[in-house]
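Researcher: We're teaching a course module on how sequence relates to structure. For the next exercise, students receive a sequence and then see the predicted structure as C-alpha cells, so they can try to spot secondary structure elements on their own. Here is the exercise chain.
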Amino acid sequence: MKNPFSNIAGIKVIMEERLAKHTSFNIGGAAQYFVYVYSKKALKEVLKVIMRRHMRYFIIGAGTNLLVSDQGFRGVVLKLGGTFKRMSLRNGRCCCGGGLLIKDFLSRTVKKGYGGAEFLAGIPGTLGGAIKGNAGAFGNSISDITERVFLMDQYGIEKTRTKIEAGFSYRKSRIKKWEFVTAANLILKKQKQKSILLKLNRNLRSRQRKHPKGFSAGSFFKNPPCCAAGKLIEDCGLKGQSVGDAVVSEKHGNYIVNRGNARAVDVLALAAQIRKTVRAKAGINLKQEVILLR
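Model: And here is the predicted structure for the students to work with:
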C-alpha cells in the first residue's frame, strides 16, 4: 500500500496502525493511515491530499472518549503534536495548542501561579478534545474559562470563534467533528501556588475515589436532566453485568470497563442492554457520550 503523504514534511505516517493502543478503552482495529502532524502548514498539506482523494478522516486526541470498531477505520486518523502542544501565558491569558494534554496544561499553569482550571484535574485527554466536548467536573466546564477558539476546517481554512460563537452547552459545542481545534485562549487568575495545588489535589482525590481504574472511556452515557446516569444504572441493578470481557463497573455504574480482552461488539451489546433496562425500569432513554469510530 502506497503512502499518499510521502512528500509532505512535518508529519509521521504509520500504515495499518492498531488503534487500540491509542485509546483508553484499549479496543479497536487498525487505521489505514495514522498521521502525526506537527505544524499548521503540514496539516494544510495533509488535508489537501485527503480532500483530493476523497478520503475519510478522524481527529484523535488522547483517545479517552472513544470506542473504535473491531474492524478499525478505513481512512486517515490524524493526531496533533509539535506546535499544537505549545502554550504561552501572559497576564492571565493562556494560549494553548489543541494537542496539549490537560495534565500538562495544569502542570504548567500551576508552576506559573495561575488558577481557575482546577476542576479539570484528573480529566484525561487534550485541550482540543475538551473544548469540542465542553469537558468539565465539579460544577464547571471548560467553556467557563474559554475566551476564543482557533479552528481549521477540512479545506485548511483557518477560523476563529468567540466563546458565544462556539455554542457551548452541556458536554458539547457547535464545533464540527471535521474541524480541528488548533488552539484556544483561556482566561486564568493569578493565585497563590499553594492554594491552586490544594484544589487540584482535592479534585484528583475525589475523582480517584469515585472512578474505577482499568481500561474504559470514562462516563459512557450522558447524564439525563433528572439525575446521574450512574445512579440510574446502579438502581436498575446493572453493576457487574457483562458481555464477554466488557463489564459494568462495580464502583461506578456509568463506566463500562474492558477487563482485558473485550471487543467493541461486546461493549456495544452491553450498552444496548443497559439502555433497554433503564428505559424499561425508569422510563428514561440514555444517550451515549462515548464516540464510536468505525
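Model: If you want an answer key for the exercise: Residues 86-210 form a domain with the Uridine Diphospho-n-acetylenolpyruvylglucosamine Reductase; domain 3 fold (CATH 3.30.465.10). The chain has six helices and 18 strands.
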